[in-house]
Design a protein that fits this description.
InterPro entries: Beta-barrel_RND_2 (IPR058792), BSH_CzcB-like (IPR058647), RND_pump_MFP (IPR006143)
Distance between the termini: 60 Å
Radius of gyration: 45 Å
Organism: Pseudoalteromonas qingdaonensis
Keywords: Coiled coil
Protein name: Efflux RND transporter periplasmic adaptor subunit
Family: Belongs to the membrane fusion protein (MFP) (TC 8.A.1) family.
Order of helices and strands: HEEEEEEEHHEEEEEHEEEEEEEEEE
Number of strands: 22
Structural class: alpha+beta
């Protein structure tokens, strides 16, 4: 046999063996292999883009335009506090009574001193008048006149000072009864009967519920486009309130740290509105093109959102990031492009 023929036969035998063992000639799938999925033949919807107006949600809070802290002007023990947090008060209503004993004693002492000095001053007036008469008659010298005049002037000054102290003691006694400076509602009570009230220490906090506002720190780029009288949408989630409110105040100074300006809007008329409640201001952003789809085509898995798209007639999971819900559609921020095909009839369980 020719050597070349032997080589050809050996090579042919090896190729046949490799083909046989590789399973190319086998009509059945090997165990553990997965059959290719069938092409998707259901309905689809082509994704497009459309112009939308997005809104920036600016966080803020309800504030009281008129609020005040009630404090004592004299140091004394608290005898009675007539209100608690949540109570409504009228301007001039008695809120707190302090112990008047020490203040009354000080007033009585001041009065007694004034009476004593008044008697001495009256006597000094008489002496000065008599000294002047005697001096005219030549019975006393000029030095006697000078002494009588000095005594008269000293007692006059002392009497004036005593009268001022009496007036101050009278005013201090009046401070023992503390009344409401405004009509409103008590926010908090900082002291109890038996405590010692000192000047500058807050005892009560009161606000006027008829003068509430909404306050927001708006980015300076947005704030410079606002003007007084603008109507903007505001929301108070805790009360389910959403309405347009008027811009009533813009603080004319920017915060250098946050690069924002404080703006205040009129608060909604709601009996449940309270200072400190969370609020949101909706400010429109420039119009832009966005991919919008129906939320029914979005499937959520924990914090992930997914849609089914068709690529080369096959279903493919596509994870997306969603934005605002506008009407009956939701904005897709990433994960879908205009022209993609969404599978309408498919469900994730089929994959």
């Amino acid at each position: 046999m020719q050597p070349k023929l032997v080589i050809v036969l050996v090579v042919g035998f090896l190729v046949a063996a490799i083909v046989w063992f590789s399973g190319v000639l086998d009509q059945h799938l090997a165990p553990g292999t997965k059959q290719a999925p069938a092409p998707y033949s259901g309905q689809t919807q082509r994704v497009g883009s459309e112009p939308v107006v997005a809104y920036e949600a600016v966080p803020g809070q309800v504030i009281a335009q008129q609020n005040t802290k009630v404090a004592a002007r004299v140091m004394a023990q608290i005898e009675q506090i007539t209100v608690r947090a949540g109570d409504r008060v009228e301007q001039g209503q008695v809120l707190i009574r302090l112990d008047e004993q020490e203040l009354t004693t000080q007033l009585q002492q001041a009065k007694a001193q004034v009476q004593a000095l008044q008697a001495s001053f009256t006597q000094a007036q008489k002496q000065l008048k008599r000294a002047k008469e005697l001096f005219v008659q030549g019975l006393i010298s000029q030095s006697d006149i000078d002494a009588a005049t000095a005594n008269h002037d000293n007692l006059s000054a002392s009497l004036q000072q005593a009268q001022q102290r009496q007036q101050q003691a009278q005013i201090a006694l009046g401070y023992a009864t503390i009344t409401a400076p405004i009509s409103g509602r008590v926010v908090e009570r900082f002291a109890e009967p038996g405590d010692t009230a000192t000047p500058g220490r807050d005892l009560l906090a009161i606000y006027n519920p008829q003068q509430l506002q909404l306050e927001f720190a708006v980015r300076e780029r947005q704030a410079v486009n606002l003007k007084l009288g603008d109507m903007r949408q505001v929301e108070i989630p805790a009360l389910g309130v959403s309405q347009a409110s008027e811009l009533v105040e813009i603080v004319p100074a920017a915060d250098s740290a946050s690069r924002s300006l404080l703006v205040r809007l009129a608060a909604p008329q709601n009996a449940q509105l309270l200072p400190g409640l969370y609020a949101q201001l909706q400010l429109p952003l420039p119009q832009h093109e966005a991919v919008m789809i129906s939320p029914q085509y979005v499937y959520s898995y924990g914090q992930l959102d997914m849609v089914l798209v068709v690529e080369r007639q096959q279903l493919v999971r596509r994870y997306v990031r969603l934005g605002r819900v506008i009407g009956d559609q939701v904005e897709v921020l990433s994960g879908l492009r205009p022209g993609d095909e969404i599978a309408i009839d498919a469900k994730p369980s089929r994959l």
